[in-house]
Amino acid sequence: MTRLILVILLALQWHFPQAFAQTLEIFELDYNILDTRLGKYAKKNRERMTRLEELFQDAGCTSPHLQKQPIRGSELANVICALPGSTDSLIIVGAHYDFAGDGQGVVDNWSGASLLPSLYESLRTHPRHHTYLFIGFGEEETGFLGSQSYVRQLSKEQRLKIHAMVNLDSLGLSGTKVEMGRGDQNLIKLLSRVSKATGLPLDGMNADRVGDSDANSFSRAKVPTVTIHSITQDTLPIIHSRLDLLTAVKLNDYHDTFMLVAYYLAALDELVHTK
């Protein structure tokens, strides 16, 4: 069903001199859809790429809006689903689908990649100002080759059209977390305000001990980024271990993260300038 929510958001320096009311509209998916897509992980990265493409198609994203971008030197590709808006200003939502180490690689990072088609589906029922690109990056675990490849092929003009890169990595181990130490402070502040307005939980938690992420490929190119995750000191040992299993994901927390990110993406569309 389509869900509308009227929220009070404090202004950022982007826009508006004071607090204001904003109606955000998303399509609220049945959580069983999220759980089913989460369960479609695969052991081999090439198969994960294919399954992500199939999930996008299941969500209604098909050619010409669904494409694969080759990654130089790899058999993998970036899987890109475009949701056209009324302008060519971009909001990128990214998550890597490849994994390394033992376990099933569900947390790191099928949890983020499999959420991309659901976020596309939640936003596509309402006209948007920005064009969204939902990108499943390959080869994150081998040096961020997928995201670096994507950024390198952009012209300066194309980079300037990207107003936000929202990075989803390792979700569902706990309540939603945002990387505080690395990322654009305006994007982080808006996420916090959407959390407060909707009542969906959010905590600040740096995950720098885990290492860099695909967001860094964009921040180095001067693109504003924000990284959303679920890692805490207690759950950090799960990453890249045999404990990275489907059963490690706390579904209630995962569902809350989906709702918060969906509303956040709708808020970005309304509040960030398209010029």
Can you describe what's shown?
There is one protein chain. Strands 3-4-6-5-7-10-8-9 form an 8-stranded mixed beta sheet, with helices on both faces. Helix 2 packs parallel to helix 4, helix 4 (115-123) crosses helix 9 (251-271) and helix 7 (185-198) packs across helix 9. The radius of gyration is 17 Å and the shape is globular. The relative contact order is 0.19. It is built from 9 helices and 10 strands. It has helices at residues 31-38, 45-58, 106-113, 115-123, 145-152, 156-160, 185-198, 215-219, 251-271; strands at residues 2-9, 20-27, 66-70, 77-83, 90-96, 131-137, 162-168, 177-178, 203-204, 225-229. It is 33% helix and 21% strand. The protein has one domain: Aminopeptidase (3-Layer(aba) Sandwich), CATH 3.40.630.10. The protein is α/β, with parallel strands linked by helices and 275 residues long.
Q: What share of the residues does DSSP label as strand, in percent?
A: 15-25%
Instruction: State the CATH superfamily name.
Output: Zn peptidases
Give a short account of the largest sheet: 8 strands, mixed
Q: How many helices in DSSP terms?
A: 9
CATH architecture assignment name: 3-Layer(aba) Sandwich
Q: How many whole angstroms does the radius of gyration measure? A: 17 Å
Spatially, the strands of the biggest sheet line up as 3-4-6-5-7-10-8-9
Overall helicity: 25-40%
